[in-house]
Records
---
Amino acid sequence: MLRRTLMTTAAAGLGLAILGGSAALAQDKTKACFVYVGTIGDGGWTQAHHTAVMKAQEHFGDAVEFQWQESVPEGADSERVMTQMALGGCNIIFTTSFGYMDPTNAIAAKFPNVKFEHATGFKREHPNVGIYNARFYEGRAIEGLIAGRMTQTNKIGYIASFPIPEVIMGINSYFLNAKKVNPDVELSVVWAYTWFDPGKEADAAKALMDAGVDVIAAHTDSTAALAEISKAGGKVIGFGQASDMAEYKPSPRVTSIIDDWSPYYIRQIQAVIDGNWTSEDTWDGIAQGTVGIGEFTGLPDEVTKEAEALRDAIAAGSYHPFTGPINKQDGSAWLAEGQTAPDGDLLGMNFFVEGITGEIPQ
Amino acid sequence: MDFGGINPVILVASLMVAAVPIMLAALGELVVEKAGVLNLGVEGMMIVGAISGFIAAVATGSPVVGFLAGAAGGAVLSLVFAFLTQVVLANQVATGLALTMFGLGLSSLMGQGYNGIKPPLTGKVPFGPLADIPVLGPILFAHDWMVYASIALVAGVWWVLRATRLGLIIRAVGESHDAAHALGYKVNRIRLMCIAFGGAMAGLGGAYVSLVRVPQWVDGMTAGAGWIALAIVVFASWRPWRVLIGAYLFGGISVLQLSLQAGGSAIPVEYLSMSPYLVTIVVLVIMSSGRGRASLNAPAALGQNFHAAR
Amino acid sequence: MLRLEKRPNPSKFWQYGTPVVAVALTMIVGGILFAFMGKNPVEVIRTIFWDPIFGEFAFYLRGQLLVKAGPLILIAIGLSLGFRAGIWNIGAEGQYIMGAICGAAVGLAVYPTESRLIFPAMVIAGALGGWAWAMIPAILKTRFNTNEILVSLMLVYVAQTILAKASTGFLKNPEGMGFPGSRNFSSFPAAANPELIAGTGIHWGVIAAFLVAIVGWVILSRHIIGFQIKLSGQAPRAARFHGVNPSRLVVLCMGVSGGLAGLAGLFEVTGPAGQISIDFNVGYGFTAIIVAFLGRLNPIGIVFAGILMALTYVGGEMAATNLGLPAAAIQVFQGMLLFFLLGVDVLTNFRIRTAILGVK
């Protein structure tokens, strides 16, 4: 029995490896595949990825074949989808949600000839796995500056999704850069505990406005918050999130953080075509175009100029949104004068900076 | 008038808006259940109503047409359920769940190409100076017309069920379909019409989400409102005015927990977000304890299919 | 005019014939839908129904069918007992989540101890977690006559909130750089539920599903409890005369379905899913309700229904990836399949007669 089991194991393992290999060799056209967590029409995260894929498809034309799968649950289902893609001859597979981290590494081990790219995670356990993310906190800094300058009530708000480093980083960057130009500013954070629930997002925006907040940034994906803000009759402003949300121009949407993964996708697929793809940990920002800053609209000229200058300084690398001295919320020192935050600190961020009054739900 | 950083007037005014979709859907489901049918497909009918209404409103530029189309969309989908459960006598629980799955997929297909479009604005009812009355103004006189329409619908359903012959027939069918049949009523036809009404109301609620609450189209945008509507029906023990109270309570708690956070209260979020469900359970227990099924007002034939032997 | 006439006994022929008719009808109507969307209907239907079992990659996908069907079958069999007795537990999703959390918590509490006892202890904790969560509506029902449909449904949302809390709080991986999600069980062998035979997809959950199907069949057809369950569903009054205690039956049926849902959650979290995360549950608890009915509340039928359901997921995914169909089209197709399966069942219990006009 044991012997039999062992033999089937070997046979099956071999089958996978050989098929994976031959499928990759058999074709001359490069195939790039994408695993999406939401639907293409979610208006946020997945839509941004798919828009980038469409741009890449335009860029490569017939040279590259593209495939994607929508609404793939994290966990066992994603492993199956990735395996199907690898078996089906994909040369590079992009997995576009944090929850795909362990599955991506597990499947990558079985298909050493296929390249895997995992978004927003931190594990690279195999030489054929790369990871990529965007420095969205750079965009938050610009939103923070605008918030600090534009608020009349000195109350600014943030609709947060889940208490994870990505979100906490955004909150801190937003607050620090608002505080820099307006020391009296106070921040209210509302945890919606969802990435996507338009009704709740609208309610959250309304709750913030009712509490006197007049600049609202959102870390949730739909335009519901902006729609709610627009009912305030110009007294409150907000920002586009994930996409430009241009339909709310010129106000209440005064600028936006646009997720634009296309430069990265084009670069990595090209590397596969050229045969010089290597496993990297990429964290691109405004400079590389991954974090796009939407047109500034409906702002006074001097604020627009200041925001543009900040954007350019971040892109040029002359300004880092987390530059010391910065203390943690409990008053303990984090960054010394002039010191900038190491990437490791940011990626694992689990504390608010000094001056934020709320608490992070632990 | 501030309690813990929250202005109760604004809170009430916003919960009235937040409650409209679940109130409409629950009201429809109440009629369906009164007729003895359990349709768990509310979420599916809502989302199809949301996209139908959105498409129609964008195409015609008229929110009114949008709401009508939303109701029609929900009703048409509910007819699938009605056919399966009333004509070929399929199980109601399973068919309802399948309806939700189908509706979510269908709405997403219909909605392709409608992302990122703004629908025409649903206007507020002009009450003029009335809206400026302190306290009462923002609560009573500062809403869009659907808020008032939904309350009127509650009153209408209450009146029909309580005081009309039609209401009597619906209740008879829900209490004992055999007796109703013996009296000469066409049980399945009556139920079919109730199901269509339920679908229309769910569709109307969905259209309110896509045309007023959010207002735009995104996949899966009703985000579970249909399930909450189902809860409210039982919470209300099948009484229309209690549906209104239940919807306000549900809408109220979800608005309140966000307002408390915005106001800076250090209340653990996760307990607040589960509180509406816990409150519903507690209320259910209180209402049903010790007094038996009759006091719960549940239709006796709920969930049972009827086939006329002759 | 067509009318239905109740058969004295369910038709044996149609009992087996209806699923075939339903699948055929779905293929035709679904094919029209796919053709309307500009795809080759034959190719799409082949990709969904044929390729996962006999296609090029069937050696891998057949196992995946079992992985997908396992939890569905396990939960659906538990639910079917209650459904037969008229006890409506529609909160299996919550019990599934709680089973996963309790089981995982036991395992993670002793990390990184290596002992043969850990996994069995987790299995027990998982079943208990699901059982306890189902006991809430069960006891509220027996003590206060509270509607179990609603309470069990409400508890799904409560469980989801607890899940979010677990993955961002008390079960969070201490080495996860602050990201949500527990440790991955694949790196904790004593607590893991791996593929038992490589390439087949079979893990303990799949084995449990088939065992439970057999046990369920025996209980329903041979055991007094099975008789009591069936009697309570068909004739509650008669059941009382036969000495069936309705409260005990509620506690039993809810407990069994909750426990099995909890088991399914535990096997899933330690095996295919690998870890507790915010979105760890993917709706098996709800889909299982449909599976239970598709299987005609019969354990053997449920096994086939679970595999058919898994086929539409796995095959549907392939159609979406390879042929560029939107995921929504697959969802619509699945919905249609369910409608047809539920609808044509009428032929089992009824004859269709053409009535002469004017005669009723």
---
Amino acid sequence: MTTDVSIALTDAEQGSSLWHDAWIRLSKNKMAVGGGAILLTFIVVALLTPWIAPYSYEAQNLDLGASPPSAAHWLGTDIFGRDVLTQIMYGGRVSLAVGFIATGVALIIGVSWGAVAGYVGGRVDAVMMRLVDILYALPFMIFIVLLMVVFGRNVLLLFLAIGAVEWLTMARIMRSQVQSLRQQEFVEAAVSLGLSPVTIIRRHVVPNALGPIIVYTTLTIPSVMLLEAFLSFLGLGIQPPQTSWGLLISYGAETMEEYPWLLIFPGLALTITLFSLNFLGDGLRDALDVRGSKD
Amino acid sequence: MLHTFLECRLRSLLFTSLILLITACGRGESNVVQGNRDGVLHYGNGAEPQGLDPHVVTGVPENHIIRALFEGLAVKNPQTVEPEPGVAERWEFSDGGRVITFFLNPDAKWSNGEQVTASDYVWSWNRALHPGTGNEYSYMLFPVVNAEAYLKGEITDFNEVGVKAIDDTTLEVTLNAPTPYFVQLMDHYSTFAVHPETLMQFGEMTDRYTPWTRVGNIVSNGAFTLSEWSLNRRIVVEKSEHYWDRDKVSLNSVIFYPTENVVSEERMFRVEQLHYTQVVPLDKIPAYRSMPDTPYVQAPYLGTYYYLINTKRPPVDDARVRKALSMAVDRETLVRTVLQETAVPAYSITPPDTLGYFPPKLFDYDPEQARKLLAEAGYPNGDGWPGLEILYNTQEAHRKIAVAIQQMWKKELNIDVTLSNQEWKVYLDSVTQIDFQIARRGWIGDYVDANNFLDLFITDGGNNNTHYSDPVYDDLILYRAPKAETREARYELFAEAETRLMEEMPIIPIYTYTSKHLIHPSVEGLYSNLMDSLNLKYVQLVPGRQLQGSTQ
Amino acid sequence: MLRFMLIRILQALPVIFVVITATFFLVRSAPGGPFDQEKVVIPEVKKALEAQYKLDLPLHEQYFAYLSDLAQGDLGPSFKYPGRSVNEILFSGLPVTAELGLYALLIALCIGVSAGVFASLRPNTAQDYVPMSLAMIGICMPSFLLGPLLVLVFGIWLDWLPITGWGDIPGDKILPSITLGSAYAAYIARLSRAGMLEILSQDYIRTARAKGLPEWQVVTRHALRGGLIPVIAFLGPAFAGLLAGSFVVETIFQIPGLGRFYVQAAFNRDYTMILGTTVFLSTLIVFFNLVSDITAAWLNPRLRAQFKGGSQ
């Protein structure tokens, strides 16, 4: 948010009240506020999990096996007799971390890359976007397998690897946004005023391209979480007994006829998170809609 | 381009066509009903075969199809697993069991009508053993005199190898030593004959990748011939007109499906798209078991699931620690809970009743003794435990077992164990390099004989992977047992060797495998046996029988 | 315009070359080889196998040999499936995966664009929330969950549709296409809603409305073109994703497509197969990105003017 603040401070043209206005608009949007609150709760629970989880993470009860929800186990147990609620709480730590960190990585690389390529254009754009094409066309499965093998499996590396793959689409979207923004009168005016490109990108281009970027970000977080599940499922991600929502869901999907609660509860956790993210993202987009606020 | 009203049209069009499709097809007759009428067996085969060349491929799905297309000199009786006549109508032992003479059935024909001759076998075994072919199962023929030397390029004249065609129907094989299980090996595809003229038509004898196995090209000698091979879709074989025992063959055709996804395979069986499944997902088993006239069939299988121990890495370089770990594994509970009674607890490497051989049982689940041993080794109540890692290849089934064992060791011995999974080829690399402390391993027998399990652990054996080395053990397995006069004497030597092995405990045996299939009630003659080896010529379909609880 | 396309195609060639080179050396540096098995292979046999596949040559010689074969359109023999060439395997799987991808993309576009546009017309009302919530559920549903769920409901409980196969039983293409397409439908819905909202607040739309054009004409004639630019930009990558993502769907529904080979080749260390699918997929991806760029340019009036100017 530091860049936002700096934009707010330096942006004489649009007035320093922009971010304040946006905040006010956001806080009026009940869905967005609700989403934000739920998200915040989940994050707090994830952080506190080691202290508040009802059962020990590893405790098995092989003789109990998979049991439906009961007073002792509110959300039931899995085939090892482990408490599902505890698993979901621990899984949330991994899933939320993957979602936010990997998306953050993707966001930083993708937005700067796309903005520069789209703004500068010409040969620089061609070279930068060909690089994106090369990375797109790389067999990403092998890329991750190699990374995991050469550097050993490591959660942080996994986050970075996923982020390194996800930034590509972000860069393309940013570039196409910037390309169309560049043609707009207010950017042309800024250019003719002799402002430096960095200033123009920061002051005019990025804030105006924020809408689609925020929307794409709220789309990237779930896809990153699912990508992590897919990789873990192939054995290239999270190491058991660590778990994640995606992994819990993929196991649950296999036994949905026998033990539906193993699918439903992790599924609900993921769905609620993604919905909250989505409403928050929409709210942010609407709140930051600069042109919409100009009338 | 994308006008909304146009889209609405497109959408409604799509929707109506969807509805039309659904109502029009209405799911018609199931594969099973149709197959029962036409004598077509719908067989879930587990995976797309690598190929159908008996001297090139390795693997179970390949085995099923190749054994439908080809026949060995002797085949396994599907009920007793003892050899019975195949291409050879009889065989005789001479020179104290060192020479076997196979008398070929003059009616045994290739699918083009030509006779299967003894010289076809000499040619084929030359191919199977030729260093240029790269046959990964060439060691199946190593009991034959000079076979190993020929493969390793120490001799280059195949005439020196102990196999001779006396005449068209007489094949004489000379062995290094009496080998009781040799006739059994004649049912393994690496010892099958191929049709020399057909192969030569498409390339050299040792070529791996000629199209001779394709539909229209392949000439085989089994009960069925190849009629369709659609990559990753299906393989269809049809009853052969030239097979010598064709009157016994009841099926007109078998369709093999590459059912890679076990969950999908089970669902295909449920909607009667398959007569037979290769496996059954663990979680579905209780429901099938409780069905009246259950289609679920489970039988002991010649394979052991165990953990390899690197006997040179602390803390498991101490036999007391290894024993403590092994004794603290509650195999009964593991089998009952995690494995849903689909396995048999194992306390040694050889599966019980391997052609009458029972392995010694030296220990039992004994946490008390385990704690004592661990204390003796310097870790009383887990104090000072340096940590231990279990390596397994990435698969849910292995993970479940590792998680349960990790927990048992924590509970009984108060030691911390971490789990590590590796992708298959990386895992193989680690196991071959013996770069692990404890690693999951499974061994499936190639033939029914304890030797196939016990010779794993000879010094520097390719599949030893534990650094276990005992000259007395080597002597027992390599020299004394082959020279034993009787089966009993031989089994006693095996038991002696196996006792020595389990006293050192370079492996932690966990369970003996079972084969698990769903078989539609209309199928007769699919017997279960220790090798999970079926002979399709005995299979019959009885129309009219229905799956309980089926939708049709 | 023609020059633009030509330049882009020429630029693509070195891209594909770099991809081939990088993949070749990446794949060879992974531990484990194509002939490693659970039962250890006799060293002499392994040597013979490596000689048959030229793996005994120095790596750079193998690389140049591969390039020269590739130049002649030969992707080499498969390691995992002896007796089959990579070309043959690819061309047996391609029509199936392409058909599956096409149906999935069509479903995704039809549902996604209509839902997104529909929602954008009345933002923050039920007309917005309902389709968008459905889209969100689509995103939350990975194909390894949606596939089995659809099979269970439509294949087993209702017994309406076949649960496996491709082109074997009438109707067996429906469930896999929906499974693969649904996640993309959800993405497209979100992107087109966002894009439309962006455009609908533009001055020229207000002008069009002020001129008294009926709303549906405002949308179809003016707004859609600009509003769908993000969707078009997404389609190139989406198609690539569909091809790679078809792995799960192909496995669940036992479809004889490419995706299964692509993923399994990596696990099998089937070097030629990995390279073959990579070359093939990278060509496709580069091509589709090109198409998506051209379409986006065509849809954007200002950029279009620029291209026209450039080509004169």
